[in-house]
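Hello again, I could really use a second opinion on something today. I've been staring at a protein lately and its backbone has me curious. Please have a think about how the structure follows from the sequence. I owe you a coffee for this, so here goes:
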Amino acid sequence: MPTPTPTEILDVVGRLEAEQEIPDEMRADVRLLGRLLGHVLIESGSDGLFEDVERLRIATIEAYTDPTSDAFDRATAIVQELSPSRADEVARAFTVYFHLVNLAEERQRVRVLRRRDGDGGRDPRGTIPDAFSALAAEVGEDAARERLDGLCFHPVFTAHPTEARRRAISTSIRRLSTLVDELSAAPRGGSAEQRTRRHMLEEIDTLWRTSPIRPEKPSPLDEVRTVMAVFDDTLFTAVPEAYRRLDDALHGDEGGSRAPVVTPFVRVGSWVGGDRDGNPFVTAKVSRQAAAIASEHVLIGLERAALRVGRGLTLGASSTPPSAELTALWERLRSADEDAAADIAKRSPNEPHRAAVLLLAQKLTATRTRNADLAYRDPKDLVADLRTVQASLVAAGAVRQAYGEIQDLIWQVETFGFHLAELEVRQHSAVHAKVLAELDAGAERSELAEEVLEVFRAISFVQDRFGPRAAGRYIVSFTQSAQDLANVHRLARYAAGEAGTPPVLDVIPLFETFDDLQAAPGILAEIVDHPEFASRLDATGRRLEVMLGYSDSSKDVGPVAATLALYEAQAAIAEWARAQEIELTLFHGRGGALGRGGGPANSAILAQPPHSVDGRFKLTEQGEVIFARYGDPDIAMRHIDQVAAAILTASAPSNEDRNRGAADRFSDIAQQMETASRARFFDLVKADGFAPWFATVTPMEEVGQLALGSRPARRGLSVESLEDLRAIPWVFAWTQARINLAGWFGLGTALDAVGDEARLREAYDAWPLFRTMIDNVAMSLAKTDDRIAREYLALGDREDLAALVLDEMALTRDWVVRIVGGDGLLTNKPVLQRAVKLRSPYVDALSLLQLRALRSLRDAPEGTEADPDVRRLLLLAVSGVAAGLQNTG
């Protein structure tokens, strides 16, 4: 195929863009970034690289827009003709292109958010003020304010290996994002525009030259530092800004001049450095270091914020006299640190509020550097000092200074403390049982036993050093009995010894499999009578946390049965908790992919059973989802706003009545779907030889070789068994094969078993759980590709299993389109449809490259060493497809 001319390229690409109705600004960004990438490929790539990339790009676009053409065969032929080194370069070029498109799409989201918030006309839809107003109309102003005061959104960052993108790549993209903003602001045709374009070329060239594959797996501490970048860049400022927007909306014109009514409602947790389930690299030492790193980051942030606030308080004593309490605070601080006080007083003459806050910043420095004589012992002491400054300003009439940046700083301390994120520990119940059997037998302690006990000592250390909120939640994976939970307290006592005191622990059951979800209420009813549990319930005001696993239940019985089982488990647990007068928080172990509970969080919250939310929502944020939701300040604020609004709305009587009524009304449909979908799922996964076939038709084994995260991809598994395969590579491998089976398989059969199209449409309109399920499956299916899927399935030489998958895919797609309406998937979600269709032809190119590598590996004689060039191409393609599809794990 000859190299397409620039006119031909613009014509084909233009048709693709026109079909997706891409906004003009986004189209301009995509084209600009694409041109700059082309410049880099010509300048830095090997001879002919740009031409080969363009030939493949045009072929895959034509194949996507006209499936009847022979373009797909042409694209396959182009891929097969490439030399190994050229295939490597082409894979990297398409991967860089995805990063640039993702960036352009993110900038468009930011533009839309800023426009909604600009011109004095904020769009209230899906915001906390909007949710509060609706709630107040139902339950009254006082009751709504009480619920707002009790609101809690608790994201927990995890280090699951779903983020295929290297940290170096993420950092480069953030720099490039800043340059795109600078270019938009630069005068056209001037030197500033020329300079910014030059810097953009430099950054894209850096992106091109940076290997997308990590040379080795990151350590747990590398993962900790990656998450810290999100805190430093966005969360530290986005969270108080979210509070501020709500407070301003509630106060109206008096915002900033009255005492705030918003109580901090975000709490941040972390499994990074604490999740040791199946990860031998997370040790007690790592947990201590993770807590120390997090504390270092938040104290630096608070110290800098205090310095900035202090330097701005240039209010003279004559215009803003200090209160007696502020004078007393200054004297107390001065006597403890006379040298610093003298220097500050000299630089802040007759500015008592400025001097006091600057001396508080010195005290924060002492806290960070562990200067025991000057350090704060507890963040509550810092809040008390800041409130003294605030009250003095109010008394002097400087209310805007009092309720401005000082209030933001108070919110930051109240949200993050001196620990930043609450470090949570997770371990498998079987490990606890094994170690306890050894300890009870009085045998010499093994290395495993010593490490398990040392974890409890590490929790005590973190609590003593960084405060009781810094650690203490202990999650028990695969909880199958009350004894599994009681074992944690027994181990803690062993670790403390007869004369010691165990750490304060909130032991959290994690119910993961279908059977465990059904058994959950009985296990909880038994464990709350256990002495340690009963004592902790009394100490916390009868608060209890229960975690639900989405991914293992989906792998266990299929996505449809798992979704319905999770709903039923939540309803049963919530009903039990209300009867026991327990304040329940359900902790949702969701991933980014649809097979792991992914999808829009706000719609999922609104579909929860009555009283399962009650103003509190906790979930895991994993892999690429962390950067997608929290990587940009504007997007992070919008995400927090949307989720918090959904939490408030979920507990409104109207929403609870709707969910309760729909669950009752469509219970027969739920039963039919559960039975039919599970049987269909078992037809596939329980078929003879399924496990080795799965490993052949997907890059499952190769995913384990990609340096995604510190945790192994499986728990000592052979390809003869799937029981111990982690849900992450199970989902990731199906996604890479462009089949996405973990997100939809069995739904078509389930809907077909119901058969009543009119009633299913009625359920879609009236039943939030069903609507969320259908919409999520539509998203999952939109990212599949029949032609690509057939090529992967052909690798396995099992026509029966391949036909089973393809038939179910077609049946599911047909039913989803019939229920939702329109002429295809996602017609009711045009923005999402546009994003999928814009990327799909380019993902196809990388999938064809991945197939080339997989065929070579599968065709190699048994026992021979894999060609390193082929293996590298495969891993490059895995990384690129992940970048193109985004929610891969």
User: Anything to note?
Assistant: Residues 593-597, 715-719 have pLDDT under 50 and may be disordered.
